């Protein structure tokens, strides 16, 4: 079974690569990509530990709401592990 | 005066482009300063910079078209490409540097489209530079909100039975769409097939040409 996850609804300052429109949204891990240097450190020239990166698949209806036309169309995005939490309660 | 183009049009009927007479921006000045320092310290050279620009300019959608045409005709390569697109394109002989590539495939039931909402991530090391519209705020914001509307403006109208899959290139991966092989192409050579593969068909905003 695909692992259900939710993007943490954080609003930190600085350079992050988690798009605003996906924060707080739930999806499933489509595939895990391995570990990559954390861009939140790289952007400032800091030592950047490698963190697990996942491709998370969201339903358009889960991102934009139930009135979305074609709600079962999907959107995949690459999200770092520290931005994800389990979402077993998600539909 | 022969060189005064005010109020006049080029032979193609377009206004002449204004001269770039504005002062350098902060970041343009910074780029020149850093580049000159790197050259002065012997870390790089003008020849090396020019050679890198030539290498990047030589990359074009024709590279991707060769990859797609081979995927259409060679089942083993197709499997390798879907498994690890970076390794498969390197094995074909393309110098893609550190590019981490994922191939996604369009079928009768699925249509994939690529966008980078955060900036302009694009598989440049395979396909060359992205088109200007790919970097526009309109394309970047609308493709994730209304992909079918954007596709229709590109002339691609999909039935509700086709699942649209948007890929937002937010981090380290880059994406290439393998368009569906057009009908009526049985028996065509790889080179003939490659001519049917457009840049837009590999972004997902288009489909391959009919022969």
TrEMBL record, chain A:
<dbReference type="InterPro" id="IPR008990">
    <property type="entry name" value="Elect_transpt_acc-like_dom_sf"/>
</dbReference>
<protein>
    <submittedName>
        <fullName>Nitrile hydratase subunit beta</fullName>
        <ecNumber>4.2.1.84</ecNumber>
    </submittedName>
</protein>
<dbReference type="Pfam" id="PF02211">
    <property type="entry name" value="NHase_beta_C"/>
</dbReference>
<keyword id="KW-0456">Lyase</keyword>
<feature type="domain" description="Nitrile hydratase beta subunit">
    <location>
        <begin position="3"/>
        <end position="86"/>
    </location>
</feature>
<dbReference type="GO" id="GO:0018822">
    <property type="term" value="F:nitrile hydratase activity"/>
</dbReference>
<dbReference type="InterPro" id="IPR024690">
    <property type="entry name" value="CN_hydtase_beta_dom_C"/>
</dbReference>
From TrEMBL, chain B:
<dbReference type="GO" id="GO:0018822">
    <property type="term" value="F:nitrile hydratase activity"/>
</dbReference>
<dbReference type="InterPro" id="IPR036648">
    <property type="entry name" value="CN_Hdrase_a/SCN_Hdrase_g_sf"/>
</dbReference>
<dbReference type="GO" id="GO:0046914">
    <property type="term" value="F:transition metal ion binding"/>
</dbReference>
<feature type="region of interest" description="Disordered">
    <location>
        <begin position="1"/>
        <end position="20"/>
    </location>
</feature>
<protein>
    <submittedName>
        <fullName>Low-molecular weight cobalt-containing nitrile hydratase subunit alpha</fullName>
        <ecNumber>4.2.1.84</ecNumber>
    </submittedName>
</protein>
<dbReference type="InterPro" id="IPR018141">
    <property type="entry name" value="Nitrile_hydratase_asu"/>
</dbReference>
<dbReference type="Pfam" id="PF02979">
    <property type="entry name" value="NHase_alpha"/>
</dbReference>
<feature type="domain" description="Nitrile hydratase alpha/Thiocyanate hydrolase gamma">
    <location>
        <begin position="27"/>
        <end position="205"/>
    </location>
</feature>
<dbReference type="InterPro" id="IPR004232">
    <property type="entry name" value="CN_Hdrtase_a/SCN_Hdrlase_g"/>
</dbReference>
<keyword id="KW-0456">Lyase</keyword>
<keyword id="KW-0479">Metal-binding</keyword>
């Amino acid at each position: 079974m695909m692992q259900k996850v939710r993007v943490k609804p954080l609003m930190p300052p600085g350079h992050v690569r988690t798009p605003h429109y996906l924060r707080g949204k739930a999806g499933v891990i489509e595939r895990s990509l391995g570990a990559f240097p954390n861009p939140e450190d790289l952007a400032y020239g800091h030592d950047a530990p490698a963190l697990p990166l996942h491709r998370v698949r969201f339903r358009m209806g889960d991102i934009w709401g139930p009135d979305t036309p074609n709600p079962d169309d999907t959107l995949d995005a690459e999200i770092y592990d520290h931005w994800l939490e389990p979402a077993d309660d998600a539909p | 005066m022969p060189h005064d183009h005010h109020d006049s049009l080029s032979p193609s009927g377009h206004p002449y482009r204004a001269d770039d007479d504005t002062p350098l921006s902060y970041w343009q000045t910074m780029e020149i300063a850093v580049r000159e320092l790197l050259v002065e310290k012997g870390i790089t050279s003008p020849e090396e910079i020019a050679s890198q620009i030539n290498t990047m300019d030589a990359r074009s959608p024709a590279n991707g078209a060769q990859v797609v045409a081979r995927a259409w005709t060679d089942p083993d390569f197709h499997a390798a490409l879907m498994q690890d697109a970076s390794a498969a394109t390197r094995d074909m002989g393309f110098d893609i540097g550190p590019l981490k590539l994922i191939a996604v495939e369009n079928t009768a039931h699925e249509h994939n489209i690529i966008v980078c909402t955060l900036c302009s991530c694009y598989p440049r090391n395979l396909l060359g530079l992205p088109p200007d519209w790919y970097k526009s705020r309109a394309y970047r914001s609308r493709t994730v909100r209304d992909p079918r509307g954007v596709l229709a403006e590109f002339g691609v109208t999909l039935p509700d039975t086709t699942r649209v899959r948007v890929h937002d290139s937010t981090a380290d991966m880059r994406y290439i769409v393998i368009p569906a092989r057009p009908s009526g192409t049985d028996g065509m050579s790889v080179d003939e097939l490659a001519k049917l593969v457009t840049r837009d068909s590999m972004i997902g905003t288009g489909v391959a040409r009919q022969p």
